[in-house]
Fold this protein.
Amino acid sequence: MLEPFLDNYNIGKLLSFEGIQEGVENSNYKIFMSSGLYILTIFEKRVDEKDLPFFIQLKKHLVQKNFLCPKPISNKKGNYINYIKNKASIINTYLKGKKASSITKNHCQQLGQQLAIMHLKTQDFKLSRKNTLSQEYWKHLFENFRYINNIEYNKLFKKINIEIDFLDKNWPKDLPSGVIHADAFQDNVFFENNVFSGIIDFYFACNDFYAYELAICINAWCFNSQYVLDTNKSTALLHSYQKNRKLIEIEQKAFPILLRGAAMRFLLTRFNDLIYHSEEAYVDLKDPLEYFNILHFHQKNNFLCNIKL
């Protein structure tokens, strides 16, 4: 089935392929072609097909501006979106490098710099996409699973409900915004010999607060195994970001709430995926309790007291 599908592209003959299980939302495969290595993504559930042109054009825009990310490949008819077993699929160029096996201050510094560059390079991008997993949708997402009869999670769900109400009342408005990646976890940021080599997986990219992007990355990159914030890493990330794009005062003041919200977003989606995941999808399920612990840290600690912006 794969060979006839690939015959529709000008990328040579299929030599071999293998699955990549680090994806959380979609099934990804390395396809080894006679012309080189590519990545095939098959969209499984949360990505809405109508959003795919936004993701494709965004990556094309960034590649044209020399930002390191995969380039979408069209088939012989010029179509970027094609179908395998009635599922939408996209082929991208292969990006050299791999995720950092052990995160250092240097990795965080490079990430902050590249996020700022990406935010600046997309300011003239003409398309926009609403964040369908933003704060206003969290209560609805929680309703999907909050009444599941699970003794282990019942007390935790009560705490989540209280936090969602808190965030609903305190979520910031009118912060500087634009296109963000919204999922720049370690799995999606590549390094080659500890030098940044690109960002992949733009399928949550959307328009939202720039500072929210930083909050997502601080939670993902700057906590140790005991769920305590490493201020050296978070300081490096923010300072390198600000060398390219300065954070204004209202963004800085919003960080404590944004960090709690960023933790809540991934706590909820991880729970939802754990409960409702498809057995057929070739994906890697993540532990939601990791983000409950990060949320708990932010509830007990004022971020602005731990770092100098």
In short: Residues 227 and 294 are 6 Å apart (CA to CA).
